[in-house]
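Predict the 3D structure for this chain.
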Amino acid sequence: MTKKLYILVFALALFSCNQRKKAEANTDLTYFDVKGYFGKEISRMQQLNPDVDKTVSINGTSENKKSKINDWTKELAIFVNADINKTSWKGSFKTVKQNGTDVYTSDSKKIPIKKISVTEKNQQVEKVEIIIDNKNILYQSQDTLTYYPDSLYAIKKQQKIRFLNEKKYSIIGKLK
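Done. Predicted structure below.
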């Protein structure tokens, strides 16, 4: 009996030493929760499984296809990656709120995300627009990401690599 008691006390002591804080929701976000919002949208779109009329264009040459998206995580990854709530970026964005639109802008050369506009109506997101600008000695690109819930998503990219011609890409998905 005492042996079992010792084992129980030892197990409890060991358990209490290794107890970790459960992952808490990050409620102290400084800016709009892009990552969280698109995480919810990905789950919602996986469940809805809508038909998508998708147009892909490269330098003006377009191709259109109607399909189902099997992996919304992959499809909307570029939106999720535009998260501006990184600890090192805290205080780097100016916030302006006007007419139901929150606009977050940064002019820091170290931060590729230059602008995020979130339009809400009745506490529901109507539109998210993200502008990403990457520059270095050899490479320059600008991405414009637009998302209308239950309607459309668009990814437009202009890319210039030194000594090569400029390329323009766009992906537009219309939800049915």
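Residues 8-15, 17-26 have pLDDT under 50 and may be disordered.
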